[in-house]
Write a structure and sequence with these properties.
Blueprint lengths: L2 H4 L2 E3 L25 E6 L6 E7 L4 E7 L2 E6 L4 E6 L4 E5 L4 E5 L6 E6 L8 E2 L2 H12 L1
Antiparallel strand pairs: 1-7, 2-9, 3-8, 3-10, 4-7, 4-9, 5-6, 5-8
The protein binds thymidine-5'-diphosphate (TYD).
Thymidine-5'-diphosphate binds next to strand 2 and strand 3.
């Protein structure tokens, strides 16, 4: 399966009515994992590049609940960019996928749902190390 097929773009239902919008995300239903952790990134500007890591264990869903940002998703073979620009869309990022988040609008609030509790040891922050581990997986 190609990287693009693995990193699904998710479209959440809008349960809104005349009172406003409502988006609901339930673990193992609208996203493919049980949610163990939630964090959000805001106050990053368009000069900043965040992420720059892959995770050996964690899966993520990224949603811009306000504003916009971009995610560059790569695996050493393929690379593509997703623009997160509406609260009812997200992108699923499986284990062992490299990601950079950047081009944050001044009002960007990037919500991240994660399948694990935080463990700094499962982060790969060096791209060469990432490529080495990806090669080991294939060979
Ligand atoms: P970092 O991984 O650099 O953030 P991002 O991927 O969003 O660019 O995390 C910044 C700091 O916050 C780093 O010291 C680790 C810590 N951190 C936690 O303690 N728990 C978490 O769930 C996350 C995402 C980060």
């Amino acid at each position: 399966m190609s990287l693009k097929d693995k990193c699904t773009i998710l479209e959440f239902n809008d349960l809104g009515d005349e009172r406003g919008k409502l988006v609901v995300i339930e673990g193992n239903e609208s996203i493919p994992f049980e949610i163990k952790r939630v964090f959000y990134i805001y106050g990053s500007d368009n000069e900043v590049i965040r992420g720059q890591h892959a995770n050996r264990e964690s899966e993520f869903v990224l949603i811009n609940v306000a504003g916009t940002s971009k995610v560059r998703i790569a695996d050493g073979n393929e690379e593509f960019i997703v623009e997160l620009n509406k609260p009812m869309m997200g992108v699923y990022i499986p284990k062992m996928v490299w990601k950079d988040m950047y081009d944050f609008s001044y009002d960007s609030v990037l919500l991240v749902l994660a399948s694990t509790h935080y463990d700094g040891k499962e982060y790969i922050r060096d791209f060469d190390e990432y490529l080495r581990e990806m090669n080991e997986k294939v060979n």
